[in-house]
Amino acid sequence: MDQTRSGNLGLHYLRAVARFPQVLAVTGAGLSVTHGQLAEASLALALGLHERGMGQGSTVAVRTADPVISLASLMATALIGARWVFGHGNLLGTDRLAIDLTLDDATMEPASLPITPLDATWFAPRSVTPGSALPFAGFRSDDDIWMISQTSGTTGTPKLVGLPHRVVVDRIAANARRLDWRGLRMASLFPVSAPVWLTYALTALLHAGSVRFGRDAEAWFGDGVGYALASPAQAASGLQGLCAPGKVAILQLSGGPAAESLVRDLLSSFAEVWVGYGSTEGFNALTNIRTLRADGSIASRTVLAPGSRVEVVAADGSPVPAGQEGEIRVTNTYLAPGYLNAPEATAASFRAGSFHPGDLGLWDAEGNFHITGRVNDQFNLGGQKVNAQLLDFTLLGVEGVRDAISFILPDLPGTEGLRAFLSVEPGADMSRLLAEARIALLALGGESVVPRRFLFADTLPRNQNGKADRRACVRMVEEGKFRRQERAAQADEAHL
Strand 401-408 and strand 418-424: pairing? Predict the structure, then answer.
């Protein structure tokens, strides 16, 4: 990937594909697209955008559930030097981001802004004389913003992260140094707009690998998948209990902590489970690699991403000793430069060349890394401060719990307002499950950390990177979008 460091990933892909045009690039869900076809689609889209006046400084919003359109439009914007953003409805038509053109594959809900529907004519092969220069100049500088994405906003107003070409290239180079991607087939449960999916998909494609599309995980094991990607919540709902003939080599979990029980179950279908720690701003900073020992116990080792440093520091910025909790500070060569149009938020999180994600954690005596919570995601429960993620993680350890999110109702003080949403396995013994949940929480922090009521939903609100959306939990309660387990509810105290 060093040859792309001062170049354009779109151009690099067009040149690289000449060596493997007939190799499959996107498969699954009825798709069978070769690298040559994907390159043709990327070039056709680039020429179409150029003819409509798009180029350096333009911003193209794309709304699609199709991986080919997502990838081809991303390559096309690199070729013409434009910025690419997935067309979230709350971004379009606002002063937070000026959109020059919105493309839509006609499979999405109607947008509030005028859109340009994509049809077959956009992807028809275009005549380009071999050896001739393309009619667009690409980006001005490799520090120009290319990919734009939105943070979760679970701790405040969602922010926009702009990734320059240089940063994306460096992230792909870091991926390439930790895994051999040549010919590797990747599968994922993330949507095709998720930054984590896009970066790993680009890594696979630029190394003659392929992307398998579709959530039919049972089929991954007979289709040559060597690397899979999911959030812990996605894995809990879509990858547990698989009846697989063998094992996929690697499953990477991104977006949050993974319960020990979930990791153990996944190791029956995946040789290694990589629990990543990262963010859109700092990318994948490190990985906890989990494997099964011969005696059935789980081994864990923490591996830093190439060129990355993850420190646990005190309030004054000095590193704390092993075993002591502190704020996490991430430093690497592929940090985002900051937030778009948000100087105060940038100054708060990006300081002295490092990114401060707002997480709390520690390094243990064995050199393994642990997330313990959020700096600003703490509950004050009658004077006792408790990390919300720690409550979630404790509940995830209860047999039968697929997903858990704790939250506070804003109109009730302290412990009185503490609630927890649970998603449970079908047929779970609710009396036993709730009793074990209460016992686990009592052992963690006493009665003050036990929710006054447990609520239930099949799917809990998380963003596309798998992070808990506690504000959405409050809205679900306000709108009555949950269910009660009547027998269990009789034992619960208080009211909503």
Answer: antiparallel
